[in-house]
């Protein structure tokens, strides 16, 4: 699969089979993170890999309640403001937030060590470099996983989830938890949300000054 095929094929998949991702393949995929650009050239990433549904369930125990609260307060309101493709994705994604993390049976917790400004509390635009570095690394992982025939789904932590995870894994203070990242093989009947079509000609503005 060439690079542009990987870009076309990458999707968020929330339905996983029970086929296990081997350590060898997983290490290959995670190594892609260190090829991403990083602020100050630091590449300060650490990954915690969690296998076994009991272990995963313990790590994600706040997810169900937090998601339930979003469903109750946000889903109806979103129907009036989101476009139909985005809303269809939202409706499919919310009920699967806890299940998808457990079903893959391979949960990766990416941590990024920040040097100065807290990742989620930037003081100015420049301090967002740390945030950008963390997500450039995650994007590389998603693309590498796709190239290996794997499926991925990530959840941005909300509410008490970041601190809960940091405490449970005893993460050092200077490391920021980025996301829950489920990596596995797609179920045969996995739902694939429609990706919004973007016409690049409409988004390129030349010589506007």
Write the layout of secondary structure elements.
Elements: H1 3-9, H2 23-31, E1 45-50, H3 53-59, H4 61-81, H5 84-93, H6 97-103, E2 107-113, H7 129-147, E3 151-155, H8 161-169, E4 175-177, E5 180-184
Antiparallel strand pairs: 1-2, 2-4, 2-5, 3-5
Helix pairs in contact: 1-7, 2-7
Descriptive terms for the model:
209 residues; alpha+beta; single chain; Nitroreductase-like; flavoprotein; 43% helix; oxidoreductase; NADH Oxidase; 8 helices; Nitroreductase/BluB; 5-stranded antiparallel sheet; 5 strands
Whole-number radius of gyration? Answer: 18 Å
CATH second-level architecture:
3-Layer(aba) Sandwich
Distance between the termini: 40 Å
- Helix % is 40-55%
The run of helices and strands is: HHEHHHHEHEHEE
CATH homologous superfamily annotation = NADH Oxidase
Secondary-structure-based class equals: alpha+beta
3D shape: globular
Number of strands: 5
Number of domains: 1
Main sheet makeup: 5 strands, antiparallel
Low-confidence stretches: none
Description:
- By secondary structure, the chain is α+β, with helices and mostly antiparallel strands.
- It has one domain: NADH Oxidase (3-Layer(aba) Sandwich).
- It is 43% helix and 12% strand.
- It has helices at residues 3-9, 23-31, 53-59, 61-81, 84-93, 97-103, 129-147, 161-169, and strands at residues 45-50, 107-113, 151-155, 175-177, 180-184.
- Strands 1, 2, 3, 4 and 5 form a 5-stranded antiparallel β-sheet that branches.
- Helix 1 (3-9) crosses helix 7 (129-147) and helix 2 crosses helix 7 (129-147).
- 27% of the residues are buried.
């Amino acid at each position: 699969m060439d690079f542009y095929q990987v870009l076309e094929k990458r999707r968020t998949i929330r339905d996983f089979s029970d086929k296990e991702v081997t350590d060898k393949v997983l290490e290959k995929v995670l190594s892609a993170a260190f090829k991403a650009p990083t602020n100050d050239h630091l590449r300060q990433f650490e990954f915690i890999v969690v296998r076994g549904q009991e272990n995963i369930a313990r790590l994600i125990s706040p997810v169900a309640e937090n998601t339930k609260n979003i469903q109750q307060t946000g889903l109806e309101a979103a129907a009036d403001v989101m476009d139909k493709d985005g809303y269809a994705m939202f409706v499919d994604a919310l009920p699967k937030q806890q299940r998808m993390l457990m079903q893959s049976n391979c949960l990766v917790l990416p941590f990024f060590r920040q040097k100065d400004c807290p990742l989620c509390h930037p003081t100015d635009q420049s301090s967002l470099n740390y945030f950008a570095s963390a997500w450039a690394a995650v994007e590389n992982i998603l693309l590498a996983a796709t190239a290996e025939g794997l499926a991925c789904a990530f959840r941005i932590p909300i509410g008490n989830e970041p601190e809960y995870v940091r405490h449970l894994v005893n993460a050092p203070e200077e490391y920021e938890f980025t996301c829950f990242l489920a990596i596995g093989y797609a179920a045969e009947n996995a739902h694939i949300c429609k990706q919004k079509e973007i016409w690049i000609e409409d988004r390129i503005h030349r010589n506007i000054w």
